[in-house]
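Anyone else keep sequences and structure tokens together like this?

Example one:
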Amino acid sequence: MANATALKQPLSAEQARQTLINAGCVLEAAGQGDLTRGHVSVRVPGDPTHFYMKPHSHGFDEITHENIVICNLDGEKVGGGGRKHSEVYIHSEIYKVRPDVMSVIHTHPTHAVAFSATGRALRPISQPSVAFFDGLPVFTETIELIRTQAMGAGVAKALGPHKAVLMRNHGVAVVGGSVEESTILAIMLENACEIQLLADATGTVGEVFDDACIQRLYDTITKQEQYTINFDYLCRRHAGARR
């Protein structure tokens, strides 16, 4: 398990690729694959103008060092053995405008898609939802695949400074300062949407806790250490992932 000191050490290129592979295994085990349609990326260490990305036509659990794709901020493939995803522009356009973002995930999780169709705001009625207490915007321009730079820029604009954006009737885009962060946030967002759908179905959702209480929990569960601890745990659970 990584400790606080290790977290501050820059990743090597090989470590970044391995963490991407691990994220794929974790996301697949969490049910976020949607066949081969989900994708995850991480910036190349020391080179913020390029990123490693899951290849087209492969499941999350099929990412390898050999088929990882290398892309630039124009969404062009510049290296790697696999095909690039047509929705690469979700990643490239977010990286362009968010220098703080080191990893991007796009998936189509069932409950998040269903929740996005309701038009409701995510409320802090569960611990997973509190991670998005600072805002969860919605991209509403289209249900279509994001296959152009302009469309990717629209997703990035909707995301703004936040951790995630719901893409109405389509899916989610989730970002993080590390692969560990984006992966755990993607899982937490799906959990939060599922819980709210279940609670709303009862028709009797009560009052939420006050902002000060919610802020304290937010500050606790959004620490990098928390993302790493839980990512490592999920890696240990999945035989295909190693640290």
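And example two:
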Amino acid sequence: MRDAFAHIGGYLATGLREVTTDLAALDGSGWWAVVVSYEGKVTCARFGDVRRAPLPRPAGPWRGPAPGAWRSSLDQARYELGVQRIRDYIEQGEVYQANLCRVLSALPGRPADPLALAVRLAKGNPAPYAAVIDIPALAVVSASPELFLSRRGDVIESRPIKGTGVTAADLLEKDYPENLMIVDLVRNDLGRVARVGSVSVPSLFEIEEHPGLVHLVSTVRARLAEGVGWPELFAATFPPGSVTGAPKSSAVRVINELEPEPRGPYCGAVGWVDADRREAALAVGIRTFWIEHDTIRFGTGAGITWGSDPRLEWLETELKAARLIGLASGNGPESTGPESTGSEA
């Protein structure tokens, strides 16, 4: 059995002390690695030895699945049909926007080493919220570019992403109102637990460059009301608005209808909480792999609005997946992805 560890935000955490499903533990003491699945399964792991350090060296190189071995929970035809179904719901006034996702899965060439995959992603796809968490019964490797929640004392910040292209010129007209809808949703979510009048939007429609693509990003900030802890904060804001839709309750219902497999850590929250310093950084679990029962999984999706073209939304999910699936496939150093990640499960 591998020794439990986490590497998140430049911190290397070892010496696992406890694992709990109680978010209230994050209001106590200690440094915690946190994974909350999209479905709400909470895993909080407290480590005793936490220090600034680079990723350790893995025991050996990553040995991933063959590029053609990946299977998708939705093939292209079923995904495009789902996009059209969401457009029907929009026409009927049920929802304004919903995120439609699919889960890719494959069997690695040999028992998967999360650390080896994390090192591979760090070289080929560095990300601001990169994380690897390897504890009993849970292994997650994330290259997330999106901040779900950061905390500095009582100041909370979220940076939702809506809008993706190869370059800024590829961003579509529909991306801007879609981003604004999610900003309003996040403002409303944070407003439920914030001091009155403290919710603000310091930046709107920033273009961020990441390996192989660009994102449209906005920032929402607030101060927590007195007595609000992590359970209340999650109850108000989870799942993240950028990976559900608006209104959130309607979008979640549509997602549950159209997606055939659970998302797991994908579209959940992955990050760290320092309870003693009252600081934290939790990413949205996108660009995220997780390993369970000898299977490696990865999710990809797109936000659907009335202006969505089903084929273009499918291609957006391909774009988001191609680089990461390419890095996780095969044995060599190349980052070339498979021609398609759309095989039917």
